[in-house]
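JOB MANIFEST
job_type = single_chain_structure
chain_count = 1
residues = 491
[input]
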Amino acid sequence: MTPQPTTNASPIDGLGLSALEARLREDLAFLCYPGKDWVPRKDGVSDVIIIGGGMCGMVAWLGLMTGGVRNIRVLDRSPAGFEGPWLNYARMETLRSPKELTGPAFGHGALTFQAWYRAQFGTDAWREMDKIPRPMWMDYLRWYRKALDIPVENGVSVDRVEPEGDLLRLHLSGAEEASILTRKLVFATGRDGTGEPNIPGFVRDLPRRLWAHSADAIDFAALKGKRVAVVGVGASAVDNAAEALEHGAAEVRHLIRRKQMPTINKMMGIGSFGFTAGFGELPDEWRWRFMQYSFKTQTPPPHGSTKRVSRHPNAYFHFGKGVAATREVNGAVRIDFTDGTSYEADFLILGTGFTVDPLSRREFGAAASDILLWEDVYTPPEGEESADLGRFPYLNPDFTFREKQPGTAPWLGNVYCFNYGSSASLGKVSGDIPGVSEGAAWLARAMAATLYAEDVDTHWQAMLDYDTPELKGDEWQPSELSETATEGQVA
């Protein structure tokens, strides 16, 4: 049921989006937004190109514009209004994050989800809301783009990136230009931004019509009356299981390798501004320890998502069922488990998440193998090993990639990893709602410093050439200082 505006309204309530946008524009003007345009322009060259027009890409754009870096293009392969996962492969009913979090607002109260919601529906409806419905979050992000007039170029894919002198050349599809040049490149590409869907080897020989990954476009209506198996019990696994059940699946069985359900989100217990600001400054052993423990204990699926599945009598959770192999048998999927048992389903959904592996990103081409990874730098102590964590890129403090061998691919220092792949090096500041504004501020400041240093000769010459007088010469009258006057003052 759509909430209705309340008559018992505080100043922000019920004012409507037009009025909220006017308030936002005034607030931004008070803060001298956008910042002074100070970066020297080069014909035919963007200062920054951001790949991804979703939440991370837009707040990165806002951070840079606030700092006066204005020569920016934002590219997204999805149609307008469908950037990010929210209306694509995300299938949860509500967001996990608390509704009060400011997310990509970048310090502007009028740009928060709460302001957007209360402007339309009022305080009473806000108080009654528990979690943010997923489609509503996308509505908010669409408004965010409109309110800030962010020039996202939709339907444009970056197929390959290569160096061209001190610049980067991006080869595109879906754009008027076949390729474009930029000084800096930001990968604001979300959860799979430095990897791809994790496809286990046990489906390698299984016909594609019999299985899908949770990130695929799945025809859930076609699963009515079918036996569905779901590998995994993370958030995406349970959300897809719920979709299958709600579309009339005969049964849905979670096949879970673990012996018991994870129940505690360890990272949520330590979230703070200190963690956001300090994680990237920690020594390698501490950064690894935090991330590896989080991986080991696993983030549980949200309470509401799990209940969404378990309320169906034909939903089952099977623990200790690691999948060893699959094969087609009479048009169905025969699933063999590591404990020697087996099960037959009509369709298999992989809720196996995403990998983080720069080698899988086609945009880098052969240069992907030049990217420094955590496994190249750090050897964990016994008991803290993690092959998955080892594949994360080992980033510089400014989000840029490092090269394995100095001199082999120095251009990687102009590419910024502002997505989930940065979390092992810099923490949860470039993908999750809680810290994304802090991450954008961090990114913008670091990039501005680099751009300024690269153009320092130009800025120096601008200082030498500046000749606008502060004083016109009529603000004072010169006078003589005589010896008599001096003696009189002393007396």
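[summary]
Residues 1-9 have pLDDT under 50 and may be disordered.
The first helix runs from residue 16 to 30.
exit_status = 0
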